[in-house]
Amino acid sequence: MKAGDNMPRGKSINLYLMDGNVNGRIKATLANWTGLVMKIPRIDLGKCKDRDELKQTGVYLLFGKDDQTDKNLVYVGQAGIRKNGEGILNRLSEHDRDPNRDFWNEAIAITTSNDSLGPTEISYLEHRFCKLAVEANRYTVMNGNDPTPGNPSEEKQSELEDFIDYAKVIIGTLGHKVFVPLLSSVADSDDEESVGGPEFYCSRKNVNAAGIRTAEGFVVKKGSSIVSELAPSCPEYIIKQREKFREKINSDFVLTEDILLNSPSAAGAFVCGGSVSGNVVWKTSDGVTLKEYEARKEE
Q1: One Pfam family, short name please (predicted)?
Q2: 23 plus 160 within the same structural domain
């Protein structure tokens, strides 16, 4: 097999800081892709009046947080060109004035460099982006109804799926992993290198948990049993994590969804209810501790 066979190919993304700083507007393009993505802070909408790209048809995402729970929120919408000749920006401006849509502080607009998205295309893209966000389960999706997919041809669907794949790369690069599951399908195929190692287990009284290291931290898997009572010395941050993920823990103290913690020790403390060493409590199926596993990798 030649070097690079079956290996993910690199991608070249061009990021243009439209206002000269990382907190301002950013235009992103990808080599050999006609798509165009623009990240726009809500407070900078007024600066976009002369942007021809935002007068086009496209789809958009509104990002924010729940004031009470601090959960990430997203709304997926589409924007056709109105009689006034304005597309995406006009729709974003409507959301800016809507008191019932006040959660967002940043928008991402998705269109093309050649204004090639028609009504069929944007309906399909809105439907797919909304579905992908729900499936990834990182953000609470604020759409009241599931957008209809329209009726694109088989050939057009294939073309749009390629468009979506490229858009997902850029949106993730811009800081929103809204379409990225905590554990990807690559991990499910037992490709240990893609997630940092094998599955690890924590088994002790009232605890029977499984987890996987990822590039983001440590994911405790759905179906893991955790302790119901926290130790008196339980760190404050773990108490807050228990509260944060309360809706993902059923009455039997079994996780109903995968959850992400910052480190193996944080994950261990979460399931055990008190301070523990993640390098020791997490073990492979044959009893190798995480610390021993990491040491072997360096040999």
Answers
A1: DUF4357
A2: yes
CA atoms within 13 A on the CB side of 226: 33
Residue of 203, 186, 182 whose CA lies nearest to 285: 203
Total residues found in the chain within this entry: 299
Spatial CA neighbour of 126 closest among 74, 89, 176: 74
What contacts 277, CB < 8 A, 6 or more positions away?
A: 265, 268
- The domain boundary, picked from 144, 173, 202, lies at 173
Side-chain-facing half-sphere of 171: CA atoms under 13 Å: 27
Residues 227 and 117 occupy one common structural domain:
no
Rounded Cα gap, residues 186 and 168, in angstroms: 16
**Helix (H) or strand (E) run with residue 73 in it:** strand 72-79
Instruction: Provide the domain limits for residue 45.
Output: 13-173
User: Any idea what DSSP says for residue 9?
Assistant: P
Q: How far apart are CA 291 and CA 207, in angstroms?
A: 20
262 strand-pairing partners = none
Q: Are residues 162 and 197 in the same domain?
A: no
Q: What is the mean pLDDT of residues 96-118?
A: 93
Beta strands in the chain (DSSP E): 13-17, 26-30, 35-41, 58-65, 72-79, 104-112, 140-141, 200-204, 207-214, 217-220, 259-261
Tens digit of each residue's pLDDT (9 = 90 or more) over 24-65 = 999 999 988 999 999 999 999 999 999 999 999 999 999 999
Q: Are residues 225 and 87 in the same domain?
A: no
Please tell me whether residues 40 and 168 are part of one structural domain: yes
- What is the helix (H) or strand (E) element at residue 272, kind and residue range? helix 264-272
- The two structure tokens encoding residue 114: 């050649």
